[in-house]
Each structure stands twice: as C-alpha cells, then as structure tokens.
Amino acid sequence: MHVKTLSLIDFRSYASVDLQLSAGPVAFIGSNGQGKTNLVEAIDYLAGLDSHRVSSDTPLVKAGCAHAIVRAKLQREDREALVELEITPGKSNRARLNGNALPRVRDVIGIVRTVLFSPEDLALVKGDPSDRRRFLDHLIVLKSPRLAGVKADYERVLKQRNALLKTAGRRSNVEISTLDIWDSNLAKTGGQLIAARLELLDQLGPHVTEAYRDVAAEAADDRRQVTLTYKPSVEGIELLRDPAEISAALQTAILGRRREELERGVSLVGPHRDELGLAIGELPAKGYASHGESWSLALALRLASFSLLRQDGDDPVLILDDVFAELDSARRIRLAKRVATAEQVLVTAAVEADVPDELRGQTFYVAAGEVTPGD
Question: Is-contact 8 37, C-beta < 8 A?
Fold first, then answer.
C-alpha cells in the first residue's frame, strides 16, 4: 500500500496543500519549524486517529480555523481508496471513505496503516509505562481494527468507574451495588485487551530480537539480546491467554482490592496499570541503557512493528521523521538498507545530506509552509 495523493486544509501550518506522491522513497527536506513533520503527521493520523506529537486534536487545526481536513488517496494492489477526515476540536470528528460518510470515525482505522519512527520514540524506552502501553495498544488496533472498539469500551468503563469510586466510599449502598456492575464490565473489557496485548507480544518478540541485533550489530554479544516482558497488575495473568480466564482473574483481584480502591478513589486493577518491561542483556533498559542503546531499542520496536504488519501481506507506509540526524553513520546505513524494500518510505530531514543514498527518490522541499517538488 502507498499514499498517492495528500490534501490538507487548515491542518497545522497549512491553509491548503495538495501533493502527488510516488511509491518508494519520498523525502521532505526543510529546516526545523518549516512544516515538514506536519505532512507525515497527517498521514499517520489517518491510520490511528492520534498524533505522535500531541494528545489532543486542538493543535492539529490551524489557528483561527474551526476544523481541519485531511484527505488521502491510497493505492493497494490494483484498488484505490479515498479517505477523508474532518477534525473538529471539542466535537465529534467525521470520516468518509470514497465519498461516503462512515457511521463512526473509528471505522476509518485499518484503511491506512503506518509505522512511524521519530525522536519522540525515545519515550518508549526512557518514558513512563503509559508510553509503552500506548505503543502496544496502537499496534494492536492497526493489526486488528475491531479491537479499537474494545479499547474505547475499556476506557469508557474505566472513566465511569473511577468517577463512581470517588463518591461511593462515602455514600449509600446504592453506589456500591452499581459498582458491582462496573467491576464486571471492567473485568470483561480488560480481559479482552490484556489477551490481545499478550498475543501481540508473543508475535512481536522475535521480530524485536532480530531487528535489535541488526541495528546494534557493533554491540558486544551480551548487549545485543533484548527481552520484552508483560508485567500485569495481577500476578500470574501474563501466563494466561484466554480472555475469559483473564477476565475472571481480574474480577477476583478487583474484589480483593475494593476497600483500597474506595479509600483512594481510583481503579488499581486492570490493563491501565500494566507495564511492558524492556531489558537489554540482563538489565532493564530504562535507567541502564546508554543513549545509543535506547535509540537502537526504540528503532527495533518500530522495525519489528513494520515486519509484523507486513506479514499480513500488505506493507504499511513507513515514516521516518527526522531520525537520521540522530543516528551514527553505521546505524544510518543499516536502517536504510533494511527499509529500502518497503513499498513506500516517507522521510523527513533538515539536511538533504542526512538522507542515505538508498532512500533517495521523490523529493519535496519545505520552507515557510510552502512545499515545492524537487527536480
């Protein structure tokens, strides 16, 4: 799959832009702050309905405008599809496919698939557990779009249950009885989400190991082995795979911690409290990995994601956002050779010389919000 056209209206710094993109490598060259990342961010937003840079939609809309539009024509084998999103902060976004309105905006997920690597990905190694949970859940939804509904349901239940916990500890038994219902819903949706995460890690682990050994080829043997470990809020759940069994274990744990939850007014059990453990050699990556090792591991996680999605028979669009300047020459060359066979690779760089020869193809120059095709 590749993106053939990209049109933006009032998205970030762009009042209007229309681009014709080719398959293979596509580079956007421009100094920092000129708008090149905004272009690839728009494509990535179509895939997962979230941004790698901000947590809300408001910054995506050009200042002073009511909404933004992102439109892309996709080529998948011999078929084309036109996807359009209308982003309206504070209101429900809207999506269209081939001109037809979709019932829910999340129905657009899965039509475009992307894997994006950016400097912000250092948070996958050095950041909070929420960064690693977000990585897992984003990949889960890209691989199985139906699970976007499960994730949304869990987040809704968690929000409602937390609101109830804040008041139920000091009020009537009616709220406590209602809490039983939310306990059951949290356990059910949480069990489905954890089961999906565990299945994903089973599939992803070998790809991460292989990718890390490639990008960190110069490292000592004992620093070329990486391990991914699921660390749940309920001990032993990581050994299960059946969603019903996981839900039952969550239900038991929730009941066991009810008094503590009522006292603290917050849900203490569930996938929102789980962690993805990353280790290089025998030590945790967070706190022990060097800057170079952290970069290599973050890159390996994204390359592994690409390899896993690619197994479905359709290449995702690979986006490398301002990453080559952060890599030494050896890692830069290995990365370029590894991804050169992707159907489409979108690269952003401040300096054209940072783009490896293997990824030199169609080029656009970005300056002051204007995008100019190269010769």
Answer: no
C-alpha distance across the termini of the chain, in Å? 25
171 pLDDT band, cuts 50/70/90, is low
CATH 3.40.50.300 for domain 1-113+316-375, yes or no, is yes
Rank 78-82, 190-194, 217-221 by mean pLDDT and report only the highest: 190-194
pTM: 0.92
Q: Is 259 exposed, middle or buried (0-12, 13-18, 19+ CB in 10 A)?
A: exposed
| Alpha helices (H) along the chain | 36-48, 123-126, 129-143, 147-168, 173-215, 243-256, 258-264, 291-310, 329-339
Give Rg (Cα) of the chain: 22
How many residues can be counted in the chain? 375
Distance between CA atoms of 372 and 63, rounded to whole angstroms?
A: 23
Domain boundaries, the chain: 1-113+316-375
DSSP 97-133: ETTEEPSSGGGGBTTB-EEEE-GGGGHHHHS-HHHHH
DSSP state of 260: H
Phi and psi of 24, rounded to 5°? 85, -160
The amino acid occupying position 333 is: I
Name the band, by pLDDT with cuts 50, 70 and 90, for residue 186: very high
User: Cβ–Cβ contacts within 10 Å for residue 291, how many?
Assistant: 11
Alpha-carbon distances, residue 92 vs 14, 57, 104, 105, 115 (angstroms): 22, 11, 9, 8, 25
